[in-house]
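To illustrate this point, what follows is a protein record of this kind.

___
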Amino acid sequence: MSSAVEQPRWSDQMEFAKDRQTSIPLNERPDLDDKDELVELIHMLDFAKQNRRLHEQLYQLHSRGPLWDGDVISKSDRDELLSIGACAKVCVKGEDGFNACTYFGRSLLRIFDWLHGPLVEAGARAKVAA
């Protein structure tokens, strides 16, 4: 009679960092989402995966906005974010020419951060390094 060799379980082989976020942002329970919500999430994940270059521009608009047109990192990236509704043209104190992150943009930024890691501003990096 041959004895079967017991294989280690997958969970015994893998260790994740304690601060690792393993769930998809925005969806605490994806199994409870309806079809349209899941399709939108898939589109957002796909967009963030294919357009990593927009991560920094969206981060700038979210963390420092509203921004004057001359202060955005890239006008072409800003235009692409405008076209999908991730940012909007806004007036600030009666002045035109400003750009701000929308609620959709904030959701998309969370997905960018989840896929590619959160961006950190230069001042924050200097504090961490010290």
Observations:
- Residues 8-17, 125-130 have pLDDT under 50 and may be disordered.
- The two ends are 64 Å apart (CA to CA).
- The chain has six helices and three strands.
